[in-house]
Amino acid sequence: MPQVRPMREEDIDAVSAVRVGGWRAAYRGMVPQTYLDALTVDEDARGRREMFAHGSGDVLNLVAEDRGAVVGWAALGTSREADSGPDDGELLALYAAPDRLRAGTGTALLRHALAAARERSYDALVLWVIAANTGARRFYERHGFAPDGAASDWLVDGTAVPELRYRTRITPAP
Question: Which fold has domain 3-169?
Fold first, then answer.
């Protein structure tokens, strides 16, 4: 089982590699291939460095590490949704390296994100998932998330990609 810890600036390149690799593996056939082919680790890392340096501090970035290598990444913050309550959080991202799928990386990251949501006193945690991504949907459902009825189309290279919002209640620590 990987160790989960807060992301550091020196993790940016590895996180970008996990994210780009995760997108290419998970979203093939769900989003236009031209979009996936255009993703680069360098460009993602550039944007991530900017966010890391100038972010508000509201977003908690976590990495999963195994034998010194970053194998997963998750980001948690206050919900961006207009219809969310003021004490709702949002799982902004959760990615495992493609060779780490079904190896406990995602579960470890999600458990830490849920614990952080509890520490932040969030009432609920929401996330968006591509409707066609049945593997991710099953993963979140196994961990207590369920669709809450909200849906949206994400426009990617002129193609509408349907997304569903999932939600789970955060139970206070005993």
Answer: Aminopeptidase (3.40.630)
